[in-house]
Design a protein that fits this description.
Blueprint lengths: L2 H33 L3 H24 L19 H29 L3 H29 L5 E10 L5 E6 L14 E3 L5
Antiparallel strand pairs: 1-2, 1-3
């Protein structure tokens, strides 16, 4: 293994640890979203955590038979507010896509590790998507648009599937009696 490949492997190890920690953090954020009354946002945090599991598995495969030391810096903070959690997640995903993922992709290309470079490029694009999604969700909280829209939309209860059309989600589902937190705009993307 040459020096450039060793540097890529060391950075891969850092990314693996970073993303593994992010999986757990997003699971914690999901629990807070539930406490704050945002079931859909909780589900999206869990969805991203599950997708990151797939990313870390791929990265781990690239690191097979790797022996290296790396240090990972972790910024800790309170996670008692879904709006702050979304803003932090968006900022972190954006920053990592532009910093460590961009650097890793460039280094992998330079080391002629094409398979790694392509995967990291794809993961970087996914991180930018996550950043945009988290930003939009945070803005919806700020604008009071989580459970209200300016036009009629179809709302679906995540618990029982009851569908209601209106500008605002109902305070309680008439089907299962769960609170407004379980409503989201119906996505008909099939």
């Amino acid at each position: 293994m040459n020096t450039a490949q060793h540097q890529v492997n060391t950075l891969l190890a850092s990314v693996w640890f970073m993303e593994t920690a992010r999986i757990r953090l997003y699971e914690i954020y999901a629990k807070q979203a539930i406490k704050d009354g945002y079931q859909q946002m909780a589900a999206l945090f869990i969805e991203v955590a599950e997708q990151k599991r797939s990313h870390t598995k791929t990265i781990y495969r690239f690191m097979e038979e790797l022996t290296t030391e790396t240090s990972v810096s972790i910024k800790t903070g309170a996670f008692d507010n879904t709006l702050k959690n979304l803003e932090e997640a968006a900022l972190t995903e954006q920053k990592e896509a532009g910093d460590i993922y961009s650097t890793l992709e460039r280094m992998a290309w330079e080391a002629d590790l094409k398979k790694i470079a392509v995967k990291i490029k794809l993961f970087r694009q996914i991180k930018l998507f996550y950043a945009g999604r988290f930003t939009t969700l945070a803005q919806n909280i700020k604008d009071g648009r989580v459970f209200a829209r300016d036009e009629k939309v179809k709302w679906i209860c995540r618990k029982c599937g009851f569908i209601y059309e209106g500008e605002k989600a109902l305070k309680n589902c008439p089907g299962c009696e769960h609170p407004q937190a379980y409503f989201e705009i119906l996505a008909e993307n099939y």
